[in-house]
Amino acid sequence: MVGLHYLKGMYALSDERVVEGFLENPYWQYFCGMEFFMHRLPLDPSSMTRWRKRVGSRGFEDLLAQTLEAAQRCELLKEGDFKRMNVDTTVQEKNITFPTNAKLLCKGIELIVRCSRREGVALRQSYARLAPKLGREYARFAHAHKFKQAQKCAKTLRTYLGRLLRDVGRKASEVSEKFAQVLELAARAYHQEKGDKGKLYSFFAPEVSCIAKGKAHKKYEFGSKVSVVSTSKENWVVGAEAFSGNPFDGHTLARSLDQAQRIGGHYPKEAYCDKGYRGAGLLEGVHCDVFIPGVKGKRTPTIKKFLRRRNAIEPIIGHLKSDHGCRAA
Fold it and tell me: Does position 283 have pLDDT exceeding 80, yes or no?
C-alpha cells in the first residue's frame, strides 16, 4: 500500500490507474516488494481511499520523514541543509465546476428531491423539470450579457429552493444524517449573499474556499491554501500542510515550521519568505529568524544571497502542481 501511494504521487495517477499499472508493470511490483509477478489485481482501488483515511495526515508525514532519512543515509541531504528553509503558500484547487448562484441553487433542488424520494417524503411540488430549465436559461442569458434576465432566473430558483426547504421542514420531523446534511448545505446556499464570508461553493466539497493570490490570468481560485517548506540549498521538500479557510500567510508560518521539524527532525535557524508574509502577528510562535524582501533590517551578504535563493521554491510548487497531483484534490 505504501509503495502504491509513492507511485501514485510520483506519476500523478488516480487510484484506479495506479492499480492497473501495478498489474502490468513488473518494475512497479518489485518496487512494492513482490517476489513473483502477479497476474491479478492486488486490491480494490477503493481500499486505497480507506487506507488514506485511516492513516491521516500524520501517516503521510511519516512517509515523507522516511524519504528524508533515506536521503540522509545516501548523503544526498545533510544536517546543515535544515538550517535555512524557504516557505511559500499556494492554492490546491478542488476538482469542482466553477460555482455560480444558479448552479448551486439547481444542485440544491436536485439533491433535496432525490433524498425526499429515497426517504418517502411526499413533496407538494418538486420543480424537477422547472429548475433545470431555468438553469439553462440563466446560462444563456449570462452568455448573452443579459444580466437582468439572468438574475430573474436566479431569483426564481432561489424561491423554488426556499419552498422545498419549508415543505420538507413541515413534513419531515426526523430525517437521516445524510438528508440533514443536504438540507443544511441547501439552507446555506439559499441564505448566502454576494459579500458574505464562508460561502458555500460546492455541495460535494463544502470545505472549498475562494482564494485570491493576485494572479493576472486567474484572479480567484477555489480550493485550500497549502504551505510548502523546502530547504534553501538542495530544494528538498520537508513540509506541506493544508489550511482550512483563507488564513493570512503569516499566520500559517508557525504551523508550517513545526511540521517541518516533525518530519525532518530539525527546526530551522532562518526562514525566507516572500512579501505576502508581511503584517501583524507574523513572529507569533516562530522560533527562528524570518527574512522577507523589502523589510528593513540588517542584511549580510549571506542573507542577501539566500533571499535571492528564496525564489527557488516557486518552480518546486509548479512541479508539485503540474507533475505530482497537487493541482486538484
Answer: no
